[in-house]
Structure formats: structure tokens, C-alpha cells
Design a protein that fits this description.
The protein is α/β, with parallel strands linked by helices. Helices cover 31% and strands 18% of the residues. It has a seven-stranded mixed sheet with strand order 1-3-2-4-5-6-7, sandwiched between helices. The radius of gyration is 15 Å and the shape is globular.
Length: 218
């Protein structure tokens, strides 16, 4: 899904969980996407560890707690219509922030696992300047990645954090994702953590917290 398209799929009509500063009063926004089997409410708990005054949190919910059915490394068509519908859910949240007067430059995408894959994919397919991307244990979606992703991310700060032995996210795909986003002029920080497994650690939370602070310190 790219800018200008609109998808009506399984994740449309799900409730958008919110936290932080009221959207109408916020200076910036976080759009947080959960992993397989998790919930938007769980992402609000994660956001509570990094939130700053003046930042709204918007967390889309996947139908049946799953954005797409197969591995993110499967052929893309195996994950439709969930993938496209999930990308639309992110777009809808960004549009809610825009309607409240928050520009994309102050919107940061944060995702874990499936949600990290979806957020990475959204950024690459809808290139412009964003407040940032924190993809925790995730990467771009597809059996193989396109040779070229057109567009310019205009220096968008990106953090990719993952275990070097994650059972679901091969470190090779993290490297590939970093290369793609760097080719689109993102400012990428990549960290692989030895033996961490599939989770989030304190170092990642510290990095994300710094990125959130930067949203309102401009």
C-alpha cells in the first residue's frame, strides 16, 4: 500500500487505542504496532516507558491479534489481505494525527515483531520525512526484497534493534532492511544483541526514549 490508495480490509474498523497527551493538545505522536498474538493495549504499556509530555500515543489493533497469517519472509501474496490492511491501519493513525495538526515530521512509528515489520514496510512504501522509526525485532516484508525502493526518507531517524539469534527474524534481513532504508536517505542505527532472543531490552528502550525526546526538542 502506498500513498493515495485506500484499503478496506480485516483490520479496518478495529478500535484505535490511545494514551499520552490528548491528540488535540499534543506536539508529536507515536504510532505503535503490536506483534502477533498481542494487543494495542500492550503497546501502550511499552510506550509508557518512553513517553514524554506533549506526545500522543496511537496504537492500531489487528483483527484476531494478527496482522498477517504467515512469516514475514513468505511471498507477499500469502500475507494478503492482512498486510495491506495493516499498512492502511498505520496510514489511518497517521492521518488522525495530521487532522489534529501534527505533521508527519513529528510522527514516529514504533513496532515490535509483526508490528515492526509492518512499520518498516510502511516507511519504505510511503517515503517522506517522518519523526522516526523504531523497528524492534523486525524487518521489511517479503520472500525477497525489491532491488530498488523509490523515494526519499529525507534523513528520517531509524533504529533497528534485534537479537543475533532471533528465531523469527534472521539477522540477514535486518542487515538488508538497514541497507534499503539507508539507500532511501534514512539515518539508520542498527544494533544486534548477542543471544537476546525475541524480545525488547533496556538498551533498546533507552534509544527509543531518546528518539521520542527528539520529537519535541526541535
Amino acid at each position: 500500500m502506498s500513498a493515495g490508495e485506500h484499503v478496506d480490509g480485516p483490520h479496518q474498523g478495529q478500535q484505535l487505542a490511545t494514551a499520552g497527551t490528548d491528540l488535540e493538545d499534543a506536539e508529536a505522536a507515536l504510532v505503535c504496532t503490536h506483534g502477533r498474538g498481542a494487543t494495542a493495549r500492550g503497546m501502550l504499556q511499552l510506550a509508557a516507558d518512553v513517553i514524554q509530555e506533549g506526545v500522543a500515543v496511537l496504537a492500531p489493533q489487528a483483527a484476531r491479534q494478527t496482522w498477517y497469517p504467515s512469516s514475514f519472509l513468505a511471498p507477499v501474496e500469502q500475507n494478503e489481505p492482512g498486510r495491506r490492511s495493516g499498512l492502511q491501519a498505520i496510514s489511518d493513525a497517521i492521518n488522525e494525527a495530521a487532522d489534529a495538526g501534527i505533521p508527519t515530521e513529528r510522527v514516529m512509528l514504533i513496532g515490535f515483531s509483526q508490528g515492526a515489520c509492518l512499520a518498516s514496510e510502511y516507511l519504505a512504501r510511503n517515503p517522506r520525512r517522518y519523526g522516526g522509526l523504531a523497528a524492534l525485532s523486525g524487518g521489511l516484508i517479503g520472500e525477497t526484497l525489491d532491488d530498488e525502493y523509490p523515494g526519499d526518507l529525507e534523513g528520517t531517524p531509524v533504529f533497528l534493534g534485534c537479537s543475533d539469534t532471533d528465531p523469527y527474524i534472521p539477522k540477514e534481513r535486518v542487515h538488508e532492511t538497514a541497507a534499503v532504508l539507508e539507500s532511501m536517505d534514512a539515518d539508520v542505527t542498527k544494533r544486534l544483541y548477542e543471544g537476546m532472543g525475541h524480545g525488547i531490552n533496556e538498551d533498546e528502550l533507552a534509544v527509543v526514549s531518546e528518539m521520542v525526546t527528539a520529537l519535541i526538542d526541535v
